[in-house]
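Morning F.,

Quick status update on the modeling queue. The single chain you submitted on Monday has been processed. Sequence for confirmation:
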Amino acid sequence: MRKLISYFAIAAGFIALILLAISGPLYRTGVAELSSAFLLLRWAAYIGAGATIVGLLLLIWQALQSSRHGPSSMLMGLAVIAAAASFVIPYLQVQTARSVPAIHDISTDLVNPPEFVAIAPLRADAPNPVAYAGDETAAQQRQAYADISTWTSAAAVEQVYEQSLQVVADMGWQLVASDLAEGRIEATDTTTWFGFKDDVVIRLVATEQGTTVDVRSKSRVGRSDVGVNAKRIRAFLAALQQRL
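Structure tokens below.
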């Protein structure tokens, strides 16, 4: 009986890891809807949690017994690692989501957010509309991401523009449009696992002191961005500051 349970726990651990691994690609390739992909994640976490507990108990039991019957401790250990990863990764995502506001539109300028122009047609069918999310979102952002604000550089707008394009390329974003005369750069960042598309618009304005830089990052799907848009804006401004 213990031998049967051991093999069942091993199978469950690796099945959980497979469910975790395929959830993103199935959505990214259009095979599964987002709700179905998230369901796979949920089941990966449930199965992984159970397989981890059972696997650890069996490993302890094997360590206390002299019998060598059943699967090896190494195989069981690998299954426990797979199961634990299948639980921990979705769990951490949920905890991160709970620690940030359920918003998906972040801007350094909350009074006059940069507008999407070239990207607007690309978001025509997106669940999240291209228009700014509004005052409620702005209030939540001020509370959660107080550090995100307009950045000012002493460099001329032409220099900031060129360096901004370099940062966009370095970060692996897809450049959609750029216009020095309008001081606008638009790009799309696609996440690796699920293939979520988040759009970014950068606005540059020449001033007597140099150039003001405003960045807006908005997800096409999902009520919450799990903090990704704020993280993206911080990373862009930090990289731009290093270049200037």
